[in-house]
Amino acid sequence: MTEWWIELTSPVPHVLLVSAYMLVFMLVLIGCVAYVTFAERKVLGFMQVRVGPNRVGPRGLGQPIADAFKLMFKEMILPRDADRFLFRVAPLLSMTPALAAWAVIPFSENLRFADINAGLLYILAMTSLGVYGVIIAGWASNSKYALLGSLRSAAQIVAYEIAMGFALVGVLMASGSLRLGDIVGAQQGSVLNWYWLPLLPLFLTYLISGVAETNRAPFDVVEGESEIVAGFHVEYSGMGFAVFFLAEYANIILISGLTALLFLGGWLSPLEGIVPESVLHVPYLGPVLASGPHWFVAKTCFFIFCFLWFRATFPRYRYDQIMRLGWKVLLPLTLVWIFVEGVLLYFELPPWFD
Amino acid sequence: MLVQSAVFYFFATVLVLSALAMITVRNPVHAVLFLVLAFFTSAAIWLLLEAEFLGITLVLVYVGAVMVLFLFVVMMLDINLARMRAGFARYLPVGLLVGAAMAAEMIVILNTPAFDRPRPEPKAPDHSNTQELGELLFTEYVYPFELAGVILLVAIVAAITLTLRRRERAKSQRPSKQVRVDKKDRVRLVSMDSE
């Protein structure tokens, strides 16, 4: 073996190990995505006084797997005069950013893939890439409904990304760091120290923008069944449609996880600072009540439920009102609150900014 | 070091090829997408240079926002390729001249002592590029930074005033008025004898 070969291949075992972890995590995540679609159908069912899917497996739990199999064996139809390459690549472009963003998300103090010091920026960059899948799908399908859907999506995502970015500016002002681990660490204390309270307007803005970014009801004019059939993915069938469908839910999980990290203290336990310290050291019960990855998962699940809840509750916004809400309501709100937060930081208001 | 070089050459090849493809492909949407790829790979090269803030901001601002709007516009164009290529031979000498002049300028500038610097030492893993940039921007370069902001603001105001026009018969809704509407504005109750 020559020396350069050894040097070039020495990181390979490490890379392989990390890749193996990543692969396992991706499989688990995609499994979760499949079951979020099931949860959505069940939750919507119960909210509409129906049963929801209950035929496949015990209590219908096999439904997502049956759906995946069905879609896998269906033909993927290519519309006439469609752009062959872009048409096939578009679903992947909307799925990969949602998965890639998980690289920097910390589950607990030490449980994470990468601990980069520009983590929040990385997340923002990755979530801003997801729009390409939608736009390219709409253009490559060579269909006017699909194109209308993708134009709406481009305008909507650009509008809400600004409000979302400003909400994140507020978070990084309060925590003084772009590293996600430090942001959670800065929220240590009790439930009242988490950023949802001092940054309440930014928290709400972030949640609303998150719903708009994922093109979910009530901001789902991109799909808008009643106006433009199914919007950007109207021409997709089989696996192409399945990947778009999964990407939507992958984005929901991502946004929910981020909201939990940035505003609800991530893996921190809500009981910290409220119950006496000794309770957290009780055998068996203690680790459950103390901070840990399970709190992060629980908070994420809560926000996922909120997404489903919104869909069952709100009627769809009209297009011009979506634009109004983004540019004229949320954006000024975040600007004002960043100013207020600056003042609070300057005067070091306890208990949050001391 | 060798691994870094391998990664660098990979990204550099992709960057050059996508930049070439961007100006040679016929379809304007494909050209925009190749430009996106070029931005993305140059961001990766900046990451290799330990400029993670600039690299990620390039993706965030240019790929995530500017190019989306670009794509938005280009998608709606109906470009007649035959007419576009009609003047190609006529403008080729001018284009080559401009290209040669730009290349010469780059060569001259990059050979000046300002760019002839020793390779900086690699920073520690917890070195925050973002913080350092921020400190420089808000201390040493605060006036140029603020000036750039004001110039951009002027550009925004100019662009808006150029395109804003009030049409005479345009109708719009006032949501603030709509939510304040009262029953007596909309409904008139009439008592009638039964027939």
Name the average pLDDT of chain B.
85
Number of helices of chain A: 14
Major sheet size, sense and barrel closure of chain A: none
Biggest interface between chains: A-B, 32 and 29 residues
Query: What proportion of the residues of chain A form beta strands (DSSP E)?
Result: under 5%
Q: For this structure, what is the CATH class of the domain at 1-80 in chain B? A: Mainly Alpha
Structural class of chain B: mainly alpha
Strand content of the residues of chain B, in percent?
under 5%
The CATH superfamily of the domain at 1-80 in chain B bears the name: NADH-ubiquinone/plastoquinone oxidoreductase chain 6, subunit NuoJ
Radius of gyration of chain B: 27 Å
How would you summarize what this structure contains?
The complex is a heterodimer of chains A (354) and B (195). Chain A is built from 14 helices and no strands.
Secondary structure topology:
The complex is a heterodimer of chains A (354) and B (195).
Chain A lengths: L2 H7 L2 H36 L15 H10 L11 H17 L18 H11 L1 H10 L3 H32 L4 H6 L14 H14 L11 H4 L9 H26 L21 H5 L3 H21 L5 H28 L8
Chain B lengths: L1 H23 L3 H21 L3 H24 L5 H6 L1 H23 L18 H10 L3 H22 L11 H5 L3 H4 L9
Helix pairs in contact in B: 1-2, 2-3
Task: Give a written overview of the molecule.
The complex is a heterodimer of chains A (354) and B (195). Chain A contains 14 helices and no strands. Chain A has 354 residues and is mostly helical. Chain A has two domains: 62 residues, no CATH class; 270 residues, no CATH class. In chain A, helix 2 crosses helix 13, helix 7 runs antiparallel to helix 9 and helix 11 packs across helix 13. The longest helix of chain A has 36 residues. The radius of gyration of chain A is 22 Å and the shape is globular. The mean pLDDT of chain B is 85. Chain B is extended and about 100 Å long. Among the domains of chain B are: 80 residues, Up-down Bundle (Four Helix Bundle (Hemerythrin (Met), subunit A)); 36 residues. The longest helix of chain B has 24 residues. In chain B, helix 1 packs antiparallel against helix 2 and helix 2 packs antiparallel against helix 3. By secondary structure, chain B is an all-alpha fold. Chain B is built from nine helices and no strands. The chains are: A mainly alpha (354), B mainly alpha (195). At the A-B interface, helix 1, helix 5, helix 6, helix 7 and helix 14 of A face helix 1, helix 2 and helix 3 of B.
